[in-house]
Amino acid sequence: MSHWMKFADELGPERIEYLYDPETGMKGVIVVDTLSLAGAGGGTRMLPDITTEEMFGLARAMTYKFTMIDLPVGGSKAGIWADPAMPRKKKDMVLKAFGRLAKPLIESGVTIASDMGTDTEDVQKIYEGAGVENKSSGLSLVEKDGEPLENHATGYGVVVAARAACEYAGIKIKSATVAIEGFGKAGGGVAKYMVDEGATVVALSNIHGTFYNKNGLDIEHLLAERKELGDRALTEYQDSESLDREALYTLPVDILVPGARPYVITKDNAENIQARVISSIANNPVTDEADRILFSRGIHLMPDFLSNVGGVVVAIIDLLGGTEDDLFKSLDALVYHLTMEILDDAKHEGIPSRILAMKRIKKKLIGIRKGEVKSLPFDELLQLARERLKL
Question: Which end of the chain is more exposed for a tag (fewer CB within 10 A), N or C?
Answer without folding.
Answer: N
